[in-house]
Specification:
The complex is a heterodimer of chains A (109) and B (573). In chain A, 25% of the residues lie in helices and 30% in strands. With 109 residues, chain A is α+β, with helices and mostly antiparallel strands. In chain A, strands 3-2-1-4-5 form a five-stranded antiparallel sheet, with helices on both faces. Chain A is flat and about 50 Å long. Chain B is built from 19 helices and 21 strands. The chains are: A alpha+beta (109), B alpha+beta (573). At the A-B interface, helix 2 of A face strand 13, helix 12 and helix 14 of B.
């Protein structure tokens, strides 16, 4: 059972380009589950305001809608699901691609 | 092929060093993202869904072995071991870190490559027929023209801030493999009545939100006048192209709103004015000759008439025979051939190549193909000069590298943009749809029965996957947060370019393969014979039977009626 529970702030890390989410303390995490959830409009605006003060660390912070789910929260839109989990396809492998990269490359939706 | 002179080398090195300093200033906070973004885009560095993406220019799709090997090195050292060849004959690396970008550009400069003008509202990488210099039907190699345009347009101060991006394609053959009619300017080399080689100039073509087939603005432009004429077009566009609305800023909209005749008059006036300034020739003929010398045909090897290597392999190996039948094209030298290396093995990501595969292609090119490689807009790799006697060895090496799929031009040879798996603009995924179709039609004998088929898939209205000109086009859209796929029928990317007709309501992702199967069933049931391709049958029969096949439960909407999904395209404009 999923229901809309609010908004979180996401961006891309300036240096790595990775997808990141803002925690309650204003720090950034790669884990969506650790993101601060704003339950209403005002709280969401405040989160975004804090994020915009950190544009020396992240690029393009914005709000995404999240739902309550079995894994605490999850994005409501497929685009954000893909940003969270990575491409839904298995990329071609090179002989030098590490096992870790292969594991990290693929998450089924 | 063209080799950088001292000026080129210094120019590219200078750009790398300037970008390195710009990155440092961004990291230190001296530049904001708003200030930095146009600078990184000018160097081909995008920020996509999951990471930075570097788009590297492959001018007119031509590479040598050392360059391909360097791309493999970059893929392994700074990416995840693979790269993605695009419909603009470029390569994209999907997992780049900002701090590595300058080092990567430096590594590209080591082999005479760069990422300049692969983004932004400037003249982009000039594309050309991927069989250029080798095709039997060619009037003249279009690459010297493309190189001339590249040199002229690189860092051209007047055209660095155009209303919108600007794409030029050149073909030297009457059979258009460069999709010239879908470009801002398309150049088709041809002879006039006196036998002189010049260009038919096509303007205002494009796909994207508003697909328009380019129109002939001048039937013949002399070689000596080419740059002057192209400059005249760009001046008119730069002056009158719309800057108030991004979606109406391409030259195709200007031509449409101005009317072709008026647009032509404006260009002619500008052309005459420029000619009087330039004394009628913008290019020193000796410079053209200098460029042409770089593209001289390779030293073809002498043929041993008694050599039976090729013929013996043909009769002994059925897999080889199938591959020869599908993946070769006629070369101007009778004992040579053009090999298309499919990057569409069944279930693979269209256009992706691993570092190992890139090195395998580089090795083959150096050993057997006069060190020449091309990238096609159909996201395949081409070896343009191959002796037929070397084909068995090349095939064996391609098999080892997982590159021997015998499917060129068949239903699994699908163009697909990166879609929502990577692209920040996408509204739906493209790659899994392509993979599912390829897997469904993986039986080689069935694919052969279906015959020539161009399926092209885009993950948004920007149409990087050329869906408008696919025999079957698939456009992925976002419908209330759910992926939905519109099908277009009857598109054609050749000199007879046709924009496909939207069939009707869209399909859920899992409905796409069954829908394609129904189209194929309708085609096979109604074709006049095996020689009538899907496109020929569609043209003869019209859309009716195919729409009925797609929507068996209801009558198709009358022509001109807005379909349920029309609002998507309508919004696209």
């Amino acid at each position: 059972m999923t229901e809309r529970c609010g908004h979180i702030v996401s961006a891309n890390d300036l240096f790595e380009g990775n997808v990141v989410y803002m925690k309650a303390c204003g720090a950034w995490t790669k884990s969506l589950e650790e993101a601060a959830v704003a339950a209403d409009k005002e709280a969401a605006k405040e989160l975004l305001r804090i994020a915009h003060r950190q544009v020396d660390r992240v690029v393009g912070p914005y709000l995404i809608a999240v739902l309550n789910s079995e894994r605490a929260i999850e994005p409501s839109h497929i685009r954000e699901k893909l940003r969270d989990t990575g491409p839904s396809i298995v990329p071609i492998q090179s002989s030098t691609t590490s096992h870790k990269e292969r594991e990290g490359n693929h998450v089924s939706l | 092929m063209y080799r950088y002179d001292e000026f080129d080398t210094e120019f590219v090195r200078e750009r790398v060093s300037r970008f390195r300093a710009q990155i440092e200033r961004r990291v230190s906070g001296a530049l904001t993202e708003d200030e930095f973004k146009p600078l990184r885009l000018q160097n081909g560095l995008y920020l996509q869904l999951h990471a930075y993406m570097l788009r590297v220019a492959i001018p007119y799709g031509t590479l040598n072995g050392a360059q391909m090997r360097q791309l493999a090195m970059i893929a392994e050292r700074w990416d995840r071991g693979f790269g993605h060849f695009t419909t603009r004959q470029n390569i994209q690396f999907n997992w780049i870190k900002l701090r590595d970008a300058a080092d990567i550009l430096s590594a590209l400069a080591d082999v005479g490559m760069h990422a300049i003008q692969t983004s932004g509202n400037c003249i982009r990488n000039v594309t050309a027929d991927h069989f250029s210099g080798a095709a039997r039907d060619e009037i003249e190699d279009p690459r010297p023209t493309a190189e001339l345009l590249r040199q002229w347009s690189t860092d051209h101060p007047e055209f660095a801030f155009l209303p919108r991006k600007f794409k030029i394609a050149v073909t030297g053959s009457p059979n258009d493999r460069a999709v010239t009619k879908a470009h801002d300017i398309g150049l088709r080399m041809q002879r006039n009545e006196r036998g002189d080689v010049g260009y038919e100039v096509i303007v205002g073509g494009g796909l994207g939100r508003t697909p328009i087939v380019g129109k002939v603005v001048r039937e013949f432009v002399k070689k000596a006048d080419l740059l002057t004429y192209v400059e005249a077009i760009l001046r008119v566009y730069n002056l009158f192209g719309r800057r108030d609305n991004k979606y109406k800023a391409r030259i195709k909209i200007l031509v449409q709103e101005t009317g072709l005749d008026d647009f032509r008059s404006q260009v002619e006036n500008e052309f005459q004015a420029l000619k009087s300034l330039n004394n009628g020739a913008a290019v020193d003929p000796s410079e053209r000759v200098r460029i042409e010398e770089y593209f001289a045909p390779p030293a073809y090897k002498t043929i041993d008439e008694t050599d039976t290597t090729f013929k013996s392999a043909l009769s002994a190996d059925s897999a080889f025979r199938e591959w020869v039948e599908r993946n070769l094209s006629e070369h101007r030298q009778p004992e040579y051939t053009i090999v298309t290396v499919s990057l569409k093995s069944i279930g693979a990501v269209p256009g992706d190549a691993s570092a190992d595969q890139m090195r395998a292609v580089a090795d083959i090119a150096e050993s057997f193909a006069h060190n020449e490689i091309r990238i096609s807009h159909e996201q395949n790799v081409v070896l343009p000069h191959v002796r037929k006697r070397d084909l068995p060895e090349i095939f064996a090496r391609l098999q080892q590298a997982g590159l021997a799929e015998a499917n060129v031009g068949l239903i699994s040879d699908i163009i697909a943009c990166p879609g929502m798996d990577y692209c920040a603009l996408a509204t739906a995924r493209s790659i899994p749809i392509a993979q599912n179709i390829a897997r469904h039609f993986s039986d080689p004998s069935y694919a052969k029965t279906i015959g020539e088929m161009k399926i092209k898939i885009s993950g948004c209205v920007n149409a990087c996957g050329h869906h408008h000109v696919g025999h079957i086009g698939i456009l992925g859209l976002d419908r209330g947060g759910v992926e939905n796929y519109q099908i277009t029928l009857g598109g054609d990317h050749t000199e007879a370019m046709t924009i496909g007709e939207r069939a009707g309501r869209g399909f859920a992702a899992d409905e796409v393969v069954p829908a394609i199967q129904r189209l194929i069933d309708a085609y096979l049931a109604r074709r006049s014979g095996p020689d009538e391709t899907f496109l020929m049958a569609y043209r003869r029969l019209g859309a009716g039977p195919f729409k009925t096949a797609l929507y068996p439960d209801k009558q198709p909407l009358p022509k001109g009626t807005q379909s349920e999904c029309a609002s998507f395209a309508g919004a696209a404009g």
